[in-house]
Amino acid sequence: MSGTTKEKVLQALLALPQEAYVSGEQLATACGISRTAIWKAIQTLEQDGYDIESVRKKGYRLASSKDFVDRAHIAQHLQTKHIGQVIHYYKEVTSTQIIASDLVQQNAPHGTVVIAEAQTAGRGRMAREWDSAAGKGIWMTIILRPDLPPHQAPQFTLVAAVAVVNAMKSLYPTITPEIKWPNDILINGKKTTGILTEMIAEADRVQALLVGIGINVNQQKEHFPEELQSIATSLRMEAGEVLDRAALVAEICRYMENYSEQYVTYGFSRLKTLWEEASGTIGKNIRATTLREVLEGTAVGITEDGVLQLRLANGDVRGIYSADIEL
Ligand code: BTN
After folding, report:
1. I need a surface site. Which of 39, 100, 174, 232 has the fewest CB within 10 A?
2. Are strands 87-93 and 113-119 parallel, antiparallel or unpaired?
3. Distance between CA atoms of 142 and 96, rounded to whole angstroms?
4. CATH code for 71-277?
5. In the predicted model, what is the mean pLDDT of residues 298-325?
6. The CATH number of the domain covering residues in 285-326
7. Percent of the chain clearing pLDDT 90 (strictly above)
8. What is the pLDDT of residues 60-91, one digit of tens each?
């Protein structure tokens, strides 16, 4: 069963008004394939977990539209030119970063999204594990191919963080996500999102960036491993309702496309104010643990290069390039 046939049928079912049915014949004409191919596509969709009702003389409809983050669900909300126009969707992968890295070698275009319902070896910064519960979160990697020198790659973590915060705020105005420099998004002090930017580069040019975004969306407390329960949260726990993951993916793609284009054209200066507005770090007293030392002070700003500025007790301002910070 070709992925596109199945997706065409799914798109047609998703587009139906509530309570309406579509006949096998109508589907065959709309998708330009035979009735037998339609029947096979329906069977495959059922095997994938879609609940399809089939009524004699009426046809088919989705009994319940499952909360999947597949191409058909995301496409219903997508408003971009590049990001998300190609989507590789999996029920389970080791890590979307690994799949994305293979796809780069196969010339995957700029804006390709790799997304999975579950990851068995999701990874975070500093080789930490990333808990990726099945069907509960957004586990995705966006492949970008900006024409930039390698030293500008880390800024994409900042760009992605602003994109994710503003996408969340635009869809769910009651929640208050904040960036914890450089790559976390917290709500009420607990982590909901982590961002991991990896790079494939030649000596002087970026070949591709793999912007990995992990968002806890629909977990409840008991879905998190015990050691994370006091420090992690989900959008559902904060918003008080189950959220549409596909709609959020599409909104993130929209913000990411806008902000990454601004970054490539004008540099970080255009996004600096947006970043500072979305940040929960600026103005706070923090402890920064770098590879060499532990520094305490007030986070006073971020440079055009994305370096955090820390004012120490003696008044000196130090640039922090990479660190674990505690607020
Ligand atoms: C962190 O907070 O340390 C970053 C976590 C990044 C997790 C995402 S989930 C999608 C992508 N695939 C991975 O294996 N990691 C990133």
Report:
1. 174
2. parallel
3. 9
4. 3.30.930.10
5. 93
6. 2.30.30.100
7. 82
8. 998 766 789 998 899 989 999 999 999 999 99
Q: How far apart are CA 235 and CA 190, in angstroms?
A: 11
Among candidates 90, 78, 42, which has minimal Cα distance to 63?
A: 42
Report whether CATH 1.10.10.10 matches the domain 3-64. yes
Structure tokens, 143: 């492949």
Ligand 1 test: best mutation among 90, 97, 180, 198, most atoms within 8 Å of CB?
Answer: 97
95 lines ligand 1 (CB under 6 A): yes
Which pLDDT score, from 0 to 100, does residue 122 have? 98
Nearest to 234 by CA among 221, 247, 248, 250: 221
Tell me: is residue 191 an annotated ligand-binding position: yes
Indicate which atom in ligand 1 lies nearest the CA of residue 132. Answer: 9
Residue 319 contacts residue 302 (beta carbons within 8 Å): no
Q: Of the segments 7-16, 195-204, 318-327, which one has the largest average pLDDT value?
A: 195-204
Q: Would you state the pLDDT for residue 65?
A: 65
Residue 51 pLDDT more than 90?
Answer: no
List the chain domain ranges. 3-64, 71-277, 285-326
Residue pair 214/137 in contact by the 8 Å Cβ criterion: yes
Q: What is the ipTM of this complex?
A: 0.99
DSSP 8-state secondary structure symbol assigned to residue 129: B
Integer CA distances (angstroms), 159 to 56, 204, 213, in order: 52, 21, 12
pLDDT band at 48 (very low <50, low <70, confident <90, very high): confident
